[in-house]
Amino acid sequence: MKRKTFRNTVFLFIVGVILVSFITRPGLNDFTTYLDKTGQLKSPPSIEHSSSGLYSTFTVTYFEPVADTAAGGGSKIVAVPARKESYIGFLGRFWKQ
User: What is the dihedral of CA 73, 74, 75, 79, to 10 degrees?
Assistant: First the structure.
């Protein structure tokens, strides 16, 4: 009888973790709030968001302004991709990959 009780307890724990992770899966608004709190934003980044049943993935592309003098003699400021970062959102938190 003890073995069946342990098995049922483990099963309920796993179901509970899956349910909690589904309910607390962070969305795009949560991630932009997280980026604003970290203070890394000099210019608006491009954010790609994909979501599965239990977690969310975010890819952030940061841009840097660069002067382009090759176009017709005048100088223009062009946004050039500087770096890319990937994050995973799970249980309402974010981790950098």
Answer: -90
